[in-house]
Records
---
Amino acid sequence: MAQATVNTEYMTLVFTAIMERSDYGVPGSPVWYEPTNIELDSIEIMGYPVDLKALPKGLVGELIGDFADDIDHWED
């Protein structure tokens, strides 16, 4: 399981993902890992933790879509 944190002016979002091995399918091709099953693990707004269960699922989905695609570094 990998984790990434996104900090904005007002929010801190922590995402988790499973890193899936990828390659070009040819012997000797480069290997890299891509995040799959990205989930929003926690969120703070202006330093206050927010209960994810209190947020509408649609909002959580939009936050994942808006911020997770721009993450370029995941930590194991």
Note: The longest helix spans residues 57-67.
---
Amino acid sequence: MERKNLKDLKFDATYTSINKYVDSLYDGFIPSVVGKIRTLDHVTLVPDVIYSKVIPTLSTTFDFKDAAACSAFSNSATSSITGVTITTCFKEYEEQICTNSLSQYWAGAYMRRGDYETVPFEQAFIDEKMGKLAKKLDVIFWQGGDSCLTTGLIATATQSGATVVTATFSISTASTNGVVATLDTMVDNLSTDLLSEDDLVLFVGQDTFDKYTRSIRNLNYYHFSPDEINNGVVRLFGKRNVTLVATVGLDGSNKAFLTKSSWIFWGTDVNPSEAPIKSDYSSYLDASILRFKIKIGVALAFPTYAVVAR
């Protein structure tokens, strides 16, 4: 392989090029991170939550009654209007990148499945950060973090009265055991008011998703085509209105969550007034200093209608 000059690699040993690249992405960095989060394809994103916001939600049940001439007025319907409060908290991470210890690699074969001329280091560096940040935020949304947003959606739903079923996510050897039976049990525990809804979504980890699709294959459901599995999303077998979604936020957790997607809210401040990402080269430390900030919040409407497996 031909030896490359640092200038040819579009890399500056003082990281000033990274600083400029980060500055150019200032307004678009957080939206780009948010766009990589799988969960957000199936829940409601609430932007511009500076601190707290109330989201109105509606649920209606009714029964017809016999209509008689001049019949007295009596309630035969119940409309529940609930203001769901979503409160965001600040998350940040900081990174110090030593230029001397890293610069020795730029003359070698650093880029995988690419080349130096078409993939500048700055772009590869930031793309890597975006992907890892998206995964970490997904985990925080579902499982919580530290003192800021201690409980994610699973714990929030459980504490608020969601139905909890015992999870067994092993590969099924029959429809009556393992992951297939667990997911069927979750649907069986849904309120009858929701069984006909078109936006039911069942979230699982990628590991659980793989066990489910493998179980379907092993049970010889040949009419269940692999073509139906699209980017970690598939209709739950036999349930036309339940979408099974693999999300990194539940990987390895042995947990699953089922409700209407329109009742799940992810709060953020897409363009916070505070600096979302900044990079600067410190001559004193001989290192590039990177800091990233984002706001994240979790909220669930009508938690008693949700089903959790754990």
Note: The first helix runs from residue 16 to 24.
---
Amino acid sequence: MFADGRTLALAVGMADTSRREPMRPTSLMPQGSVGKTYVAAVALQLMDEGKLVLDAPVSRYLGDRSWYKRLPNAEAMTVRQIMSHTSGLVRYEFDDRFLADLLKDPYRIWKVEEQLAYLFDRPAPFAAGQGWDYSDTNYLVLGLIIEKLTGNTLNAEIRRRVIGPAGLRETIPNDKPELPGVVQGYAGADNPFGGDVMFINGRMTMNPSFEGAGGGWSSTALDLARWAKTLYEGRIVPAARIAEAVQGVPAQLGPDVRYGLGVIIWPSPRGPVWGHSGYFPGYITEMRYYPDAKIAVAFQVNSSVPRALGRAPGGLLNEIADMVRAER
């Protein structure tokens, strides 16, 4: 997306190799963790409304839940720490018990408390605020806080506060196994859900709704670029809040990479770049905003096999961004 709002969308390759269906700019794909940017935007809005305090303990909002004290660092972690992955809450989805349960009943509808239960009574890998570990679990907790403060479901608040106002007409929640408009994904022979493909007879091989606040949405690359520009230019969240969100802490995502409040901050020859990466079995997503030029670039690919791109995603997006700059 150009600085002046013009857009350019391209599609190459196949949306479905067995049916010989070509990929189109309007093809939707699960965006994985890029969906955290929607959750973070809602949280930042609630802060601006005085309903959520960034450095308040999470226990202020969820401490009345019967299970809450069983979480690692329950009494010490803050809202800022769960948003920046410095809370000490690790990934519940990496627990072998969760994967076994998911494979046993792939169409189960999960409650967030059931997902958090895989961490109950486990020691934290570090004290709250004293380390960094990327984790969907942090955003599941943040989603519960948002629901507590708004009295509404998380997805309903995202629709009301983000999807509608940003004009994201090609973005849908992954709330069921049947996702109209979402193209076939190729997860490789090691896909634990069986076979290479993610859709069989129009139905995903598992219920993707478990991702929830950790991601949980599908979109087109054009909608992602539109969202990045809208978000980071302060049209959904006040600019002062965005400035705070992109400060970041050192993150184990590459040399000099930082993580802010629901945003990855990458270094580049032209200054910092803001956005998020996303992974879901069968799909890879990248969304980046270049503040020096006020342009946004996003891409999606319907394969999560490591050799799918043949190169580092960040380098590809930087090259695309340079081409966009040249067209200014």
Note: The mean pLDDT is 93.
---
Amino acid sequence: MIDVRLAVPEDLPGILRLQRENLPEALGAEEKAQQGFVSARHTLPILQQMHALAPSVVATSGGELAGYALMMPLECRELVPMLDPMFASLEKVLAGKRFYVMGQVCVAKPFRGQGVFDALYRGHAREYGAKYDCIATEIALSNTRSIRAHQRVGFVEVARQDDHAGHWSLVAWDFGAR
């Protein structure tokens, strides 16, 4: 059974561990292509600051972290400088919308293919859908598994961009369209 809830401070070290296990340098080329990867690297102090602004959503099973989906309100922009180009682009294409950024979503290997990804986003809609119009993020164009998964949930591409970190698809999910 998967339990989806808002993160508590005790979840943050587990989020960092799962993140480290899924960074590109921790994966082989075939695994990256088939299973996807995460791009940004956070620190505990940054996660703590993000959590203080708005808790992220986690999925657990039997006390084990099954996945996480990081909540990044616009106030988090300065915490992760590598994401500044994304924030700037999203502010332009989503002008007039109340949105926040999915800072990163990751499902632990033993829980993949069990609906955890979709459940994490349903958790975001449940927790934040009344306060925000939509959720947005960027996905590396080379991360085809993530692109397909986001499309399945209901995200649509709103822009593409290139920056110092790579080639990106900027996507948004309108909570009113769910």
Note: The first strand starts at residue 3 and ends at 6.
